[in-house]
Write a structure and sequence with these properties.
single chain; 123 residues; alpha/beta; Rossmann fold; six-stranded mixed sheet; 5 helices; 31% helix; globular
Length: 123
């Protein structure tokens, strides 16, 4: 199974790890699922030349993944576009997010979205 997680608001909030979602990510990996991150961030904003000037306290995706040893195969950046096209292109069957708009965009596409709010799960 191909599974993806949003980054901001799903795996961390204000730089603090959201442990339930991180545990769920690890569970999927341990179950043999391919796990990726799909974020609306812009990839160039993860480069030091951008964040040092514009957002020095930014939580960087790759740094966060390394720090918490999250077993993620790939990070896809949508540059502030809805995620559904990327989810379909990457063959994602299940996506975890905190944004109801992503769930609404997936209706009828075959991609199942589970909303997480950092503590509980909504299906």
């Amino acid at each position: 199974m191909n599974v993806s997680f949003d980054f901001d608001g799903t795996l961390h909030r204000d730089g603090r790890p959201l442990w339930p979602a991180m545990g769920l990510l690890r569970w999927h990996h341990d179950a043999g699922h391919r796990v990726i991150i799909v974020t609306t961030r812009t990839e160039s904003h993860e480069r030091p030349s951008w964040w040092r000037i514009h957002e020095p306290d930014r939580v960087l995706v790759q740094r966060f993944l390394r720090r918490y040893r999250l077993p993620v195969k790939h990070v896809a950046y949508t540059s502030h576009q809805p995620k559904i096209d990327t989810l379909i292109r990457k063959g994602i069957e299940l996506h975890y997010d905190d944004d109801p708009a992503e769930e609404a965009a997936a209706v009828g596409t075959g991609v199942h979205i589970v909303l997480l709010n950092g503590v509980t799960f909504h299906v």
